[in-house]
Specification:
Helix content: under 10%
Strand content: 25-35%
Low-confidence stretches: none
Largest sheet: 3 strands, antiparallel
Number of strands: 5
Radius of gyration: 17 Å
Strand order of the largest sheet: 1-2-3
Mean pLDDT: 78
Number of domains: 2
Oligomer: single chain
Number of helices: 0
Structural class: mainly beta
Distance between the termini: 31 Å
Length: about 90
């Protein structure tokens, strides 16, 4: 699936590959800057799954190393950032 975000000047392509005879899905995304100048953006993702797909044995494998919370949240600050969060 893909979409173009004309106001942001970005295009996104998402590819989902299901493994045969397995409960594994590989999701890859490509973000392209459609404008001539460089563009800074943040990409935030989280799994939004529930029963019957999510139970105590579910494993979500991610390369994420830090979680960030809203500034008003009561949490320890992240070094070098105004945000607060948790580092795994």
């Amino acid at each position: 699936m893909e979409c173009r975000l004309p106001l942001a000047g970005l295009s996104v392509v998402r590819k989902i590959t299901l493994a045969r005879n397995s409960g594994v899905a590989l999701i890859s995304e490509t973000v392209v800057n459609d404008r001539k100048l460089g563009r800074i953006y943040n990409m935030v993702q989280h799994p939004s799954i529930a029963a019957p797909f999510l139970d105590d044995s579910t494993l979500v494998d991610s390369n994420a190393t830090r979680g960030v919370f809203p500034r008003k949240a009561k949490c320890p600050p992240v070094a070098g950032s105004r945000a607060c969060g948790h580092r795994w």
